[in-house]
Amino acid sequence: MMNELAEDTLPDAFQALFADAPSSVGFSKLRKRLLRQVRQAIADFDMLKDQKRWLVALSGGKDSYGLLAVLLELKWRGLLPVDILACNLDQGQPNFPKHVLPDYLTKLGVPHRIEYRDTYSIVTEKLAPGSTYCALCSRLRRGNLYRIAREEGCDALVLGHHREDILETFFMNLFHGGKLATMPAKLLNDEGDLMVLRPLAYAAEDDLARFAEAMRFPIIPCDLCGSQDGLERNTMKEMLSDMEARMPGRKDVMLRALSSVNPSHLLDPSLFDFSALTAAKR
Q1: Could you tell me which residues come within 8 angstroms of residue 195 by beta carbon, excluding any fewer than 6 positions away?
Q2: Per-residue pLDDT tens for 199-219?
Q3: The whole model's pTM is what?
């Protein structure tokens, strides 16, 4: 289902979105911090290069709502020269409140597309009882979002992953995959025709949670298919939270480390030519 509202309604959508926003100093600082961090990520990773139209994935969670709000404000301020199309993929989870997102987006005047694809049945058929759904569910969702982006003439799929998502993925790859890798802020898909962008790469999850609460977004919980305990990501989240509690500021330090890599001080000969190292003769 494609909403036919024109792109030039987005400034009005921004005004409607923030019409009842708190006027407190604390909220103003939070809002400015998120704007600054998103602008910095867009600049650092050159996200606007060759871009004209973005498909912004909207799940109904705090992160994607926050992403959309920040992008709308940047566009209103003339700092984001791309068209924005919000998109929700209804994956057929039991009891999914189908009306929430289209009602909300229509009320604001945000151009959007609501797509129904019953990937939930595919996941439950393929996985054994008790298995975690998230990985397969995510792959099926991404494939459909790529298709929608192509159908809508978009240059990029824009996702709401934040600082903690990136750090958790890094440690999951480190502990379980035996590699140093994480979610990049900018990625070219395997087909080479779409960018995947994560403008919230520098944003803290706690900030996004406070922002969502203050803005009173109509949150749709991600437990519609049954909340699954013991996920590896939850373990990483708890570990990082414990580190941050004992050593405040550690998350920001770790995030900086991911952008300050020294291949000669690691163990990968494909990244650094160790064979070329020779000592000067005395």
Answers
A1: 47, 51, 155, 156, 157, 186, 187, 188, 189
A2: 999 999 999 999 999 999 999
A3: 0.88
